[in-house]
Each structure stands twice: as C-alpha cells, then as structure tokens.
Amino acid sequence: MKLSARDANRYFSKPEPDRTGLLIYGPDAMRVALKRQEVIAALIGPQGEEEMRLTRIPGADLRKDKAAVLDAIKEVSFFPGPRVVFVEAATDAGAPAILSALEDWAEGDAQIVVTAGQLKASSKMRKAFETHRNAYAVGIYNDPPSREEIEADLKAAGLGNVEHEAMTDLFNLARELDPGDFRQTCEKLALYKFKDDLPVTSEDVAACAPVSTEAALDDILNIVAEGRAREIGPVLRKLEAQGVNPVLLIISATRHFRALYGAAADPGGAAAGIARMRPPIFGPRRDRMVRQASSWGAPKLEQALTGLTDTDLQLRSAGQRAPEMALVERLFLRLAMLGQRGR
C-alpha cells in the first residue's frame, strides 16, 4: 500500500508492529536514512539493537544470498520484543530475495524495513510493496518539511518554550537546511539553552544556526552601510592581512546592498522585504539590516549599486593598474559618506 506524505510522517513516529514491512525510497539518501532511523527506533525501542532484535543486511549481498532476508525474518531472538530486518540500499537486482520474504512472511516474523534510492513506477520491488495488503511503500522527496515535521524535530530536541519570532526563524531555517543539518541545529540549540528556563529567542537561533562562509565579511559591510567611515581603513587592513580578495569584497558588498535595496523598495516596508530574503536572515542581523535599509532608502541604494558595479568592472579590467585594495577602500569611503547624507 502507498502512504501519502502526511500519513507517512505520522506512521514513522508510531508504526504498526504487526505489518509485514515498509519500503522507504527516494533520491536523497540522508532524508531516507533519517526516516528509516525514526521508524526502526519506534518499532524496536532504544535497546532493540543491543538486544540483537535488529538484523542489518546490505542490499548488495542479496544477489549472492537470495534466502538472506527470509532466513533473517524467521530467526528467534534471545530477547523478547519486536524484531526488524533492515535491508539497506536495496536495488531491483535484490528484489527476488525481498519478494520471497514478503510472500512467506507470517505473524510473529520480524518486520522487513527496506531503503532504496529513486525507484521507477515500474520497479518490481516498489510494485510489490505498493500492492501488498500488509506492507507500505513511501517515497521521500526533496520537498520542504511540513509544519508537523518541524515541530516533531523541535519536540525531539526538547525545545518546547520558543518565542513566536524564534519559531518563525526556525521554520525558515528548516526550509533552507538539509534535514540532518536542521536536526543538528536543534540539538545544538537545546544544549545552548541547557538549564535555561527562558524562552528560545531569535538571538538564540542566530547563535546556533550554521555560520556562512561570508560571516567574516559582515563587519566591514555593516561599517560601510552604517556610515562609520573612520573604521573602514583599519578593518580593511586586517582583512587584507587575512588574504581576503578585493574582488570578493566587492561581490559581498554588492550582494549586501542589493539585499538592502530589495528591502527598501518592498511595498510592505523594509521589514517585510528582509523577511522575504532567502536564505533567511535571523535575529540581530535581521534587525540591523532593516535599520540600514530604512536609513538609506531606495534612491541612495541605487547610487551605491552603481558605484559597486563600476568598481567591479574596473577591478576586472585588463588595463587596471591602480592597487586593487586602494580602489575598494576609496569606494567604501564614498559609500559610507553617501549613507550619512540626509540622516
């Protein structure tokens, strides 16, 4: 039988112990593995593997041993409790062994859990699970996680007391990260709030969210956008000493000012424009960019983007002879002075 995405998520957390088996397939191995871990843990409990109630069979082994799955489901464990035979990374080449076990399965046998990559509708293994009266087939695709899935991850990490804005940040983050990375972020956030009874805030989420490779450039971008001209030189010297390329500075500044322009030009206001940014912007950085966009306004940001484009072309020009970092510093000073006008 086929399980819909909504029904599947509920089934993974509370699977039926008397089912013959479950096939989980999809193009993303990480997403499939996470669902497989969840359903097996729910079936056999936290001690199931230690009590030898879980049998693992690599899918590649089924080509040599076609009775491996059937023999495994009939085995009797030394410990009481439900048992699972897990076939990992199965393909249609191993389908005969799995289909044989499905046909000969009887009440009291171990439940069969199979994972596979992307399977066509004509796949023998997929058809067998979809048409079986007591087994399920679930396709896992790269769709954004549902609200139910996100809340389940938060609950599993012990994050129950979350402010509304922080919850919005977490929902946006879940849609940008891989499922495994989001779970790790939730676990990190739970450790960050260990023995802290205060609600989770946007600042907490920002502190625990994965840091982008551009985070080291944030200081100079904020200095320029906030018109702090005197600080530009010293910070640029530090970045130059760290090996930061002038072209990278221009690219990063262009991206930052383009985001500010998009926010400033948004019909709903700067805050609404920043909220639409992808990847999402969190906590203090979000508030800071809203202030910058509001302070600059769309017309001045258009001038800033023109200056950035001209300097970018100059840096990439074959006839360019001036020191590159000096050109960047001159532009940043001009932008900082432009941002100060009319304040």
UniProtKB/TrEMBL annotation:
This enzyme's EC code(s): 2.7.7.7
Regions that span the bilayer: none
Top-level EC class: transferase
InterPro entries hit by this protein: DNA_pol3_clamp-load_cplx_C, DNA_polIII_delta, P-loop_NTPase
SUPFAM superfamilies: post-AAA+ oligomerization domain-like
Statement: the UniProt record of this protein carries the keyword Nucleotidyltransferase: yes
Catalytic activity: DNA(n) + a 2'-deoxyribonucleoside 5'-triphosphate = DNA(n+1) + diphosphate
UniProt entry keywords in alphabetical sequence: DNA replication, DNA-directed DNA polymerase, Nucleotidyltransferase, Transferase
Family in the record: Belongs to the DNA polymerase HolA subunit family.
NCBIfam families the record matches: holA
Name listed for the protein in its UniProt record: DNA-directed DNA polymerase
Organism: Shimia sagamensis
